[in-house]
# Entry
Amino acid sequence: MRISFHGAAGGVTGSCHLLALNGRNILVDCGMFQGGRELHEENAGPFGFDAAAIDVLLLTHAHLDHCGRIPLLVKRGFTGEIICTAPTRDLARLVLLDSARLLEEDARRRRHHGEPDAPLYDTVEALDSLDRFGRVAEYGRPVDLGHGTAATFHDAGHILGSSSIALDVTEKGRTRRIVFSGDIGPRERPLLNPPEPPAGADVVVMESTYGDRDHRTLADTVAEFHAAIRRAHARGGNVVIPTFALERAQELLYYIRQGTASGMVPPSMQVFLDSPMAISATQLFRRHHEALKPEIATLLAGGQDPFGLPDLHFTRDASDSMALNRIRSGAVIMAGSGMCTGGRIRHHLRHNLGHRDCSIIFVGFAAEGTLARTIIDGAASVKLLGDEIPVRAHIHTINGFSAHAGRSDLVGWHQRTGRPEVTFLVHGEAKAREALAPALAPARVELPALHSVHEL
Ligand code: ZN
# Structure
């Protein structure tokens, strides 16, 4: 049996791991490398294996850095079955179609500048790849992959439908369990159940994003968020929140609802979710309430809406989104992208950033080089849609929200997998995974390099 790593090996994006055994090739995730123009070349480059030779793709969750190269895999000859949970399948559909649209726009822009460039894949190719989604996995119920192999999906508590996957493989009369963590959520989450690590692992492939640090507690972070909204509201202008569409947007709606109920947030605010993808994702939360915490599922089953607010508006149409530009005060506007690299948030920043009574609340990670990072770092003005806009609005940064487990939760998760012979740390920058490795003792820990191959 051989395992090889074709993404998220030395970085946090592009997850793609290949297990070869009994003449079969099982791929776990096929994600996009994210972060800039040079990574476009990396995505367009060879996978490091023959796409046509892959029999099965197991998908841990629907984030782009785990599913984003699926249409490319299909384009290059993959004809096997994609297996994931039902919420992951539905979210991946949203994510892949959105990704194709963005890739097409990007290619159009490049052509406009005289650079001939085809998109990595287009909408038709993304739609084609959806045909490869086959059986749906339920948490805790093994899925037979044939040839002495079965996969069991376990709740990873990271985003709706996210999974860790235990592969039980029998080779030459010996059965072993290989566990892929996927992305692991923190134990404290408002909507999702805590992660359930698969036990009895012989080999573990594990994420290490926050292997070097713990987060602030959730209660402190929510209190900080409520206080930021209160202060922003008192200032009189609008509140703009750049947000990721999956999970974070739904969590923020839930926190605002909680805050209104407890009096920590003024009830009179108009709240706008200005993101078609976040709106669709919110509908999927309602459809898949079996994947949510029991108390949230009970609310939904009882006809109550955990995301409902008295003055909440979902603005799907571009014309409704543009109408928000005329509102001068009292509105909370949530829009993507979370790092302000594109999307409707740029229009809202253009109309609000220059006003002293407005506030911008950043609630997520902002990578170097992104517009969000530039504003957080204190730029006096930023270029937005062709105009130089002075930064006069009040800037809040809230760091405690995370869809990833902090160091202590990662160590606890690993302990519950048993006593693996070897643990491969992936999905982490060098600093994070090097810091996590000694904390997993006595396990033998490997830090695989991109495209490295390891005999098991
Ligand atoms: Zn993820």
About this structure: The chain is about 30% helix and 20% strand.
